[in-house]
Design goal:
single chain; globular; about 180 residues; 12 strands; about 10% helix; mainly beta
Length: about 180
C-alpha cells in the first residue's frame, strides 16, 4: 500500500511501538516494551505487506549501538515469506539478526551475512540487536520481505533478483520500511 511509509515512519532517534486492536500506534517512550534502552534504540514494527526493511541510519552508513529491534511479519495466509538479504549486508562483531517462526529459528551473529531464504508460512519475527560498541562506518543492512503465493512456484533467487535493484537503491529518505514496487 502506498501509505506504508506513513504507517511506519520514524519520528525520532528513540522510538518504541505497540499495537492496539489491529491499528498501529507509535509512542516515544519505553511504555510496554521490556527491551527499550535509553542508551540505544528500541523498536518494534508490525509488517503486513511486501516491504524492504532498511537499518536505522542506512543512508548515513551506520546504525546505532545498543539497538533492539523486532519486525513482526504477518502476511496473507495464502503466502510464504521470502527473505532477501542485501548484498551490502554488514554487521559489527557483537551484532545479531535472527528469523524465527513456529517451526524454525535461523540466527546470524557477528559479521556473517544472512542468506536469502524461503520461510514456509506467512508469519515470522525478525530480530536485530547490536552491541554496546559503535559499529564501524559503512555498517548497514536491508532485508526484503516478499509474499509469494503458495500456489505459485518462484525460486528464492528469482524473487530476490526481482527486488535487487530497488533494494540496492536504498531507502527513500530516512524511511525504515519501503513498499516493494
Amino acid at each position: 500500500s502506498s501509505g506504508i511509509n506513513a504507517e511506519y515512519g520514524i519520528a525520532g532517534a528513540y522510538q518504541c511501538t505497540k499495537r492496539e486492536t489491529g491499528q498501529y500506534k507509535y509512542v516515544t517512550s519505553a511504555e510496554g516494551w521490556d527491551h527499550c534502552d535509553s542508551n540505544g534504540l528500541a523498536c518494534c514494527y508490525y509488517i503486513n505487506g511486501t516491504v524492504i526493511i532498511f537499518s536505522h541510519g542506512y543512508n548515513n552508513g551506520s546504525y546505532n549501538p545498543n539497538t533492539h529491534c523486532e519486525y513482526v511479519i504477518d502476511l496473507d495466509p495464502e503466502c510464504d515469506i521470502v527473505v532477501c538479504a542485501s548484498m551490502d549486508f554488514s554487521m559489527n562483531g557483537n551484532d545479531m539478526v535472527s528469523i524465527q517462526t513456529m517451526d524454525m529459528n535461523i540466527k546470524w551473529t557477528g559479521n556473517k551475512k544472512p542468506f536469502n531464504s524461503r520461510v514456509h508460512g506467512h508469519k515470522a519475527s525478525i530480530r536485530f540487536t547490536s552491541g554496546p560498541d559503535a559499529p564501524p562506518e559503512g555498517s548497514k543492512w536491508s532485508m526484503g520481505i516478499v509474499c509469494v503465493p503458495k500456489t505459485e512456484y518462484k525460486s528464492v533467487c528469482e524473487v530476490c533478483d526481482e527486488i535487487a535493484e530497488q533494494q540496492g537503491n536504498g531507502p527513500d529518505g530516512d524511511n525504515i520500511l519501503q513498499p516493494i514496487n
